[in-house]
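Subject: design request, 363 residues
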Protein backbone atom coordinates (compact mmCIF):
# COMPACT_ATOMS: atom_id res chain seq x y z
CA UNK A 1 0.00 0.00 0.00
CA UNK A 2 1.20 3.45 -0.84
CA UNK A 3 1.60 5.86 2.02
CA UNK A 4 -0.78 8.85 1.91
CA UNK A 5 0.89 12.15 1.17
CA UNK A 6 1.48 14.34 4.19
CA UNK A 7 -0.14 17.68 3.58
CA UNK A 8 2.18 20.63 4.29
CA UNK A 9 1.21 22.59 7.37
CA UNK A 10 0.74 26.35 7.34
CA UNK A 11 3.35 28.21 9.38
CA UNK A 12 3.80 31.52 11.14
CA UNK A 13 6.76 33.20 9.44
CA UNK A 14 8.47 36.45 10.44
CA UNK A 15 10.43 38.25 7.71
CA UNK A 16 12.91 40.99 8.62
CA UNK A 17 13.91 43.76 6.23
CA UNK A 18 14.37 46.69 8.56
CA UNK A 19 16.54 49.11 6.60
CA UNK A 20 15.69 51.48 3.71
CA UNK A 21 12.59 51.84 1.58
CA UNK A 22 14.12 50.52 -1.64
CA UNK A 23 15.48 47.45 0.16
CA UNK A 24 12.04 46.74 1.57
CA UNK A 25 10.30 47.04 -1.81
CA UNK A 26 12.76 44.50 -3.23
CA UNK A 27 11.60 42.05 -0.55
CA UNK A 28 8.07 41.91 -2.01
CA UNK A 29 8.83 39.06 -4.46
CA UNK A 30 10.07 36.97 -1.50
CA UNK A 31 7.01 37.88 0.57
CA UNK A 32 4.76 36.90 -2.34
CA UNK A 33 6.58 33.57 -2.60
CA UNK A 34 6.03 32.74 1.07
CA UNK A 35 2.36 33.71 1.03
CA UNK A 36 1.58 31.95 -2.24
CA UNK A 37 3.25 28.71 -1.12
CA UNK A 38 0.36 28.18 1.28
CA UNK A 39 -2.26 30.94 1.49
CA UNK A 40 -2.82 30.03 5.17
CA UNK A 41 0.79 30.90 6.02
CA UNK A 42 0.80 33.83 8.44
CA UNK A 43 3.39 36.30 7.20
CA UNK A 44 4.62 38.88 9.68
CA UNK A 45 7.26 41.50 8.99
CA UNK A 46 9.58 43.46 11.22
CA UNK A 47 10.15 46.91 9.75
CA UNK A 48 10.99 50.44 10.91
CA UNK A 49 8.13 52.89 11.36
CA UNK A 50 9.16 54.65 8.12
CA UNK A 51 8.28 51.72 5.85
CA UNK A 52 5.39 50.43 7.98
CA UNK A 53 2.65 52.18 5.89
CA UNK A 54 3.72 50.25 2.80
CA UNK A 55 4.08 47.03 4.79
CA UNK A 56 0.45 47.45 5.88
CA UNK A 57 -0.55 47.97 2.23
CA UNK A 58 1.32 44.89 1.01
CA UNK A 59 -1.08 42.10 -0.04
CA UNK A 60 1.40 39.41 1.03
CA UNK A 61 1.68 40.53 4.67
CA UNK A 62 -0.68 39.63 7.51
CA UNK A 63 0.98 41.42 10.42
CA UNK A 64 3.38 44.34 10.85
CA UNK A 65 5.72 44.67 13.84
CA UNK A 66 7.72 47.82 14.41
CA UNK A 67 11.45 47.65 15.01
CA UNK A 68 12.71 50.38 17.38
CA UNK A 69 16.13 50.00 15.75
CA UNK A 70 19.55 49.54 17.32
CA UNK A 71 19.26 52.88 19.13
CA UNK A 72 15.80 52.25 20.58
CA UNK A 73 15.58 52.43 24.35
CA UNK A 74 15.74 49.35 26.54
CA UNK A 75 12.00 49.34 27.18
CA UNK A 76 11.17 49.32 23.45
CA UNK A 77 13.64 46.49 22.85
CA UNK A 78 12.09 44.47 25.67
CA UNK A 79 8.58 45.11 24.33
CA UNK A 80 9.62 43.80 20.91
CA UNK A 81 11.10 40.64 22.43
CA UNK A 82 7.87 40.09 24.37
CA UNK A 83 5.80 40.53 21.19
CA UNK A 84 7.86 37.92 19.36
CA UNK A 85 7.54 35.44 22.20
CA UNK A 86 3.77 35.96 22.42
CA UNK A 87 3.26 35.38 18.69
CA UNK A 88 4.99 31.99 18.57
CA UNK A 89 6.49 32.30 15.12
CA UNK A 90 7.60 29.02 13.58
CA UNK A 91 10.30 30.57 11.41
CA UNK A 92 12.40 33.71 11.09
CA UNK A 93 13.71 34.86 7.71
CA UNK A 94 16.23 37.69 7.94
CA UNK A 95 16.94 39.10 4.50
CA UNK A 96 19.72 41.36 5.77
CA UNK A 97 21.48 39.85 8.73
CA UNK A 98 22.64 41.80 11.77
CA UNK A 99 23.78 40.47 15.17
CA UNK A 100 20.97 42.33 16.99
CA UNK A 101 18.21 40.66 14.96
CA UNK A 102 19.88 37.25 15.07
CA UNK A 103 20.15 37.42 18.85
CA UNK A 104 16.56 38.69 19.08
CA UNK A 105 15.23 35.70 17.11
CA UNK A 106 17.27 33.27 19.23
CA UNK A 107 16.05 34.78 22.51
CA UNK A 108 12.45 34.79 21.24
CA UNK A 109 12.70 31.03 20.81
CA UNK A 110 11.83 30.97 17.11
CA UNK A 111 12.81 27.40 16.17
CA UNK A 112 13.72 27.84 12.48
CA UNK A 113 15.98 30.84 11.85
CA UNK A 114 17.18 31.46 8.28
CA UNK A 115 19.62 34.10 7.01
CA UNK A 116 22.45 34.60 4.49
CA UNK A 117 25.70 32.99 5.63
CA UNK A 118 27.55 36.26 6.07
CA UNK A 119 29.25 38.01 8.97
CA UNK A 120 29.46 36.67 12.48
CA UNK A 121 25.72 37.24 12.99
CA UNK A 122 25.15 33.86 11.32
CA UNK A 123 25.98 32.09 14.60
CA UNK A 124 22.44 32.92 15.79
CA UNK A 125 20.83 31.10 12.84
CA UNK A 126 20.38 27.36 12.41
CA UNK A 127 19.73 27.57 8.66
CA UNK A 128 22.32 29.56 6.73
CA UNK A 129 22.35 30.08 2.94
CA UNK A 130 25.61 30.86 1.11
CA UNK A 131 24.94 33.62 -1.42
CA UNK A 132 28.03 35.85 -1.63
CA UNK A 133 25.92 38.90 -2.33
CA UNK A 134 28.99 41.15 -2.31
CA UNK A 135 29.80 39.83 -5.78
CA UNK A 136 26.53 41.38 -7.05
CA UNK A 137 25.93 38.72 -9.68
CA UNK A 138 22.13 38.79 -9.33
CA UNK A 139 19.43 41.34 -8.56
CA UNK A 140 18.77 41.91 -4.87
CA UNK A 141 15.18 40.73 -5.18
CA UNK A 142 16.39 37.42 -6.61
CA UNK A 143 18.74 36.92 -3.68
CA UNK A 144 15.76 37.53 -1.38
CA UNK A 145 13.62 35.12 -3.37
CA UNK A 146 16.29 32.40 -3.07
CA UNK A 147 16.22 32.75 0.71
CA UNK A 148 12.43 32.46 0.77
CA UNK A 149 12.51 29.35 -1.39
CA UNK A 150 15.21 27.77 0.79
CA UNK A 151 13.04 28.37 3.86
CA UNK A 152 10.03 26.78 2.16
CA UNK A 153 12.14 23.71 1.42
CA UNK A 154 13.09 23.42 5.09
CA UNK A 155 9.46 23.83 6.13
CA UNK A 156 8.34 21.12 3.71
CA UNK A 157 6.19 23.52 1.74
CA UNK A 158 5.98 23.59 -2.07
CA UNK A 159 7.64 26.38 -4.01
CA UNK A 160 4.92 28.26 -5.86
CA UNK A 161 5.06 28.91 -9.58
CA UNK A 162 7.04 32.08 -10.40
CA UNK A 163 4.92 35.21 -10.16
CA UNK A 164 5.02 37.70 -13.03
CA UNK A 165 5.00 41.43 -12.19
CA UNK A 166 3.40 43.40 -10.69
CA UNK A 167 4.46 42.31 -7.23
CA UNK A 168 2.13 45.00 -5.89
CA UNK A 169 -1.07 44.13 -7.74
CA UNK A 170 -3.71 46.83 -7.50
CA UNK A 171 -7.34 46.93 -8.64
CA UNK A 172 -7.63 47.82 -12.32
CA UNK A 173 -9.34 51.09 -11.40
CA UNK A 174 -6.50 52.40 -9.22
CA UNK A 175 -4.47 53.87 -12.07
CA UNK A 176 -7.55 55.59 -13.50
CA UNK A 177 -8.48 56.97 -10.10
CA UNK A 178 -5.00 58.34 -9.46
CA UNK A 179 -4.85 59.94 -12.90
CA UNK A 180 -8.24 61.57 -12.41
CA UNK A 181 -7.19 62.97 -9.04
CA UNK A 182 -4.02 64.47 -10.47
CA UNK A 183 -5.70 65.73 -13.63
CA UNK A 184 -8.41 67.49 -11.63
CA UNK A 185 -6.04 68.88 -8.98
CA UNK A 186 -3.33 70.09 -11.35
CA UNK A 187 -5.39 70.70 -14.50
CA UNK A 188 -3.36 68.19 -16.52
CA UNK A 189 -3.84 67.25 -20.16
CA UNK A 190 -4.84 63.57 -20.11
CA UNK A 191 -3.88 63.03 -23.76
CA UNK A 192 -0.15 63.60 -23.26
CA UNK A 193 2.41 61.26 -21.67
CA UNK A 194 2.96 61.84 -17.97
CA UNK A 195 6.64 61.44 -17.15
CA UNK A 196 7.33 61.42 -13.43
CA UNK A 197 10.79 62.60 -12.38
CA UNK A 198 12.20 62.17 -8.87
CA UNK A 199 15.60 63.76 -8.34
CA UNK A 200 16.05 62.98 -4.64
CA UNK A 201 18.11 60.04 -3.48
CA UNK A 202 17.84 59.94 0.30
CA UNK A 203 21.63 59.69 0.34
CA UNK A 204 21.51 55.98 -0.49
CA UNK A 205 23.32 56.20 -3.83
CA UNK A 206 25.00 58.73 -6.07
CA UNK A 207 22.62 60.30 -8.54
CA UNK A 208 22.46 62.58 -11.54
CA UNK A 209 22.71 66.25 -10.69
CA UNK A 210 19.73 68.55 -11.05
CA UNK A 211 21.40 70.06 -14.11
CA UNK A 212 21.79 66.63 -15.70
CA UNK A 213 18.14 65.82 -15.10
CA UNK A 214 17.19 69.14 -16.70
CA UNK A 215 19.37 68.30 -19.72
CA UNK A 216 17.85 64.83 -20.00
CA UNK A 217 14.30 66.20 -19.89
CA UNK A 218 15.11 68.88 -22.48
CA UNK A 219 16.52 66.30 -24.92
CA UNK A 220 13.47 64.06 -24.50
CA UNK A 221 11.13 67.00 -25.00
CA UNK A 222 12.99 68.27 -28.06
CA UNK A 223 13.05 64.91 -29.80
CA UNK A 224 9.45 63.94 -29.09
CA UNK A 225 6.77 64.77 -31.72
CA UNK A 226 4.89 67.94 -30.80
CA UNK A 227 1.61 66.10 -30.35
CA UNK A 228 3.22 63.70 -27.86
CA UNK A 229 5.28 66.14 -25.80
CA UNK A 230 5.29 64.92 -22.21
CA UNK A 231 4.10 66.60 -19.08
CA UNK A 232 6.81 66.50 -16.41
CA UNK A 233 5.46 65.68 -12.95
CA UNK A 234 8.13 66.20 -10.32
CA UNK A 235 7.81 64.18 -7.12
CA UNK A 236 9.72 65.03 -3.99
CA UNK A 237 10.64 63.60 -0.62
CA UNK A 238 11.03 65.27 2.77
CA UNK A 239 13.70 67.97 2.66
CA UNK A 240 13.91 67.89 -1.16
CA UNK A 241 11.22 70.47 -1.91
CA UNK A 242 13.52 73.41 -2.70
CA UNK A 243 15.70 71.37 -5.07
CA UNK A 244 12.62 70.06 -6.84
CA UNK A 245 11.11 73.53 -7.26
CA UNK A 246 14.39 74.79 -8.71
CA UNK A 247 14.33 71.97 -11.23
CA UNK A 248 10.76 72.89 -12.16
CA UNK A 249 11.83 76.47 -12.75
CA UNK A 250 14.81 75.36 -14.86
CA UNK A 251 12.56 73.16 -17.02
CA UNK A 252 9.99 75.93 -17.40
CA UNK A 253 12.68 78.35 -18.57
CA UNK A 254 13.45 75.89 -21.39
CA UNK A 255 9.80 75.75 -22.45
CA UNK A 256 8.95 72.40 -20.84
CA UNK A 257 5.72 71.95 -18.94
CA UNK A 258 6.77 70.90 -15.44
CA UNK A 259 4.66 70.68 -12.30
CA UNK A 260 5.61 69.73 -8.75
CA UNK A 261 3.22 67.09 -7.41
CA UNK A 262 1.80 68.37 -4.10
CA UNK A 263 2.78 66.46 -0.95
CA UNK A 264 0.69 63.37 -0.31
CA UNK A 265 -0.90 62.34 2.98
CA UNK A 266 1.65 59.74 3.97
CA UNK A 267 3.89 57.23 2.24
CA UNK A 268 1.15 54.90 1.00
CA UNK A 269 -0.69 57.73 -0.76
CA UNK A 270 2.58 58.90 -2.30
CA UNK A 271 3.22 55.36 -3.54
CA UNK A 272 -0.24 55.00 -5.06
CA UNK A 273 0.24 58.29 -6.89
CA UNK A 274 3.07 56.66 -8.85
CA UNK A 275 0.54 54.28 -10.42
CA UNK A 276 -0.56 57.26 -12.55
CA UNK A 277 2.84 57.55 -14.25
CA UNK A 278 3.45 56.57 -17.86
CA UNK A 279 7.16 56.43 -16.97
CA UNK A 280 9.07 56.99 -13.74
CA UNK A 281 12.61 58.40 -13.89
CA UNK A 282 14.91 58.47 -10.85
CA UNK A 283 18.19 57.41 -9.35
CA UNK A 284 18.57 54.15 -7.42
CA UNK A 285 16.24 55.10 -4.61
CA UNK A 286 13.08 54.01 -2.82
CA UNK A 287 10.49 55.62 -5.12
CA UNK A 288 12.10 53.94 -8.16
CA UNK A 289 11.54 50.56 -6.50
CA UNK A 290 7.97 51.41 -5.56
CA UNK A 291 7.34 52.10 -9.25
CA UNK A 292 9.01 48.80 -10.10
CA UNK A 293 6.73 46.88 -7.72
CA UNK A 294 3.75 48.53 -9.41
CA UNK A 295 5.15 47.46 -12.82
CA UNK A 296 5.26 51.08 -13.94
CA UNK A 297 7.85 51.58 -16.73
CA UNK A 298 11.07 52.89 -15.17
CA UNK A 299 14.34 54.53 -16.17
CA UNK A 300 16.93 54.33 -13.41
CA UNK A 301 20.36 55.95 -13.09
CA UNK A 302 23.02 54.03 -11.16
CA UNK A 303 26.72 54.22 -10.33
CA UNK A 304 28.94 51.48 -11.75
CA UNK A 305 30.55 50.27 -8.51
CA UNK A 306 29.91 46.60 -7.83
CA UNK A 307 27.79 47.05 -4.72
CA UNK A 308 25.40 49.45 -6.48
CA UNK A 309 25.22 48.33 -10.12
CA UNK A 310 22.04 48.31 -12.23
CA UNK A 311 22.07 44.51 -12.03
CA UNK A 312 22.27 44.33 -8.23
CA UNK A 313 19.58 46.98 -7.68
CA UNK A 314 17.44 46.14 -10.67
CA UNK A 315 13.78 47.11 -10.33
CA UNK A 316 11.35 44.19 -10.18
CA UNK A 317 9.02 45.30 -12.97
CA UNK A 318 8.87 43.38 -16.26
CA UNK A 319 12.14 43.37 -18.22
CA UNK A 320 10.59 45.16 -21.18
CA UNK A 321 9.36 47.94 -18.90
CA UNK A 322 12.69 48.96 -17.35
CA UNK A 323 15.75 50.87 -18.47
CA UNK A 324 18.99 51.36 -16.54
CA UNK A 325 21.94 53.64 -17.14
CA UNK A 326 25.36 53.91 -15.47
CA UNK A 327 28.87 55.21 -16.26
CA UNK A 328 30.57 53.13 -18.97
CA UNK A 329 33.08 50.41 -18.04
CA UNK A 330 36.58 51.78 -17.72
CA UNK A 331 35.50 55.32 -16.89
CA UNK A 332 37.78 57.16 -14.48
CA UNK A 333 35.36 56.85 -11.61
CA UNK A 334 32.63 54.26 -11.24
CA UNK A 335 30.58 56.87 -9.38
CA UNK A 336 31.16 59.70 -11.88
CA UNK A 337 27.63 60.16 -13.18
CA UNK A 338 28.79 62.82 -15.63
CA UNK A 339 30.12 59.94 -17.74
CA UNK A 340 26.58 58.80 -18.58
CA UNK A 341 25.57 59.64 -22.15
CA UNK A 342 22.37 61.59 -21.59
CA UNK A 343 21.61 61.81 -25.31
CA UNK A 344 21.64 58.02 -25.58
CA UNK A 345 19.59 57.70 -22.40
CA UNK A 346 17.01 60.15 -23.76
CA UNK A 347 16.72 58.20 -27.03
CA UNK A 348 16.21 54.94 -25.14
CA UNK A 349 13.48 56.54 -23.03
CA UNK A 350 11.77 57.90 -26.16
CA UNK A 351 11.86 54.42 -27.70
CA UNK A 352 10.27 52.99 -24.57
CA UNK A 353 7.62 55.69 -24.69
CA UNK A 354 6.74 54.85 -28.28
CA UNK A 355 6.90 51.03 -28.17
CA UNK A 356 5.92 50.02 -24.65
CA UNK A 357 3.09 52.08 -23.36
CA UNK A 358 1.92 54.66 -25.88
CA UNK A 359 -1.35 52.73 -26.08
CA UNK A 360 -1.82 53.18 -22.33
CA UNK A 361 -1.86 56.97 -22.43
CA UNK A 362 -5.41 58.06 -21.79
CA UNK A 363 -7.29 60.31 -24.20
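Subject: RE: design request

Done. Sequence follows.
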Amino acid sequence: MTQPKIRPRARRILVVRNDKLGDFMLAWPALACLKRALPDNHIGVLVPSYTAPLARACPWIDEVLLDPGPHGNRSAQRDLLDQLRERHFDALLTLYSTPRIGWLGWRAGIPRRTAPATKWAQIFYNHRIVQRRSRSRKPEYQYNLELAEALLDKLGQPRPEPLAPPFWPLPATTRDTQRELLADTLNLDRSRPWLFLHIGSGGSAVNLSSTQYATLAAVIDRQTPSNRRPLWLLTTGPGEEDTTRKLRDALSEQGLEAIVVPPRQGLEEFALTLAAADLFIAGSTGPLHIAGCLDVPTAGFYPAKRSATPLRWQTCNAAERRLAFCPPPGSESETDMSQIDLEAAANAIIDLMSTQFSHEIHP
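The chain has two domains: 12-155, 173-360.
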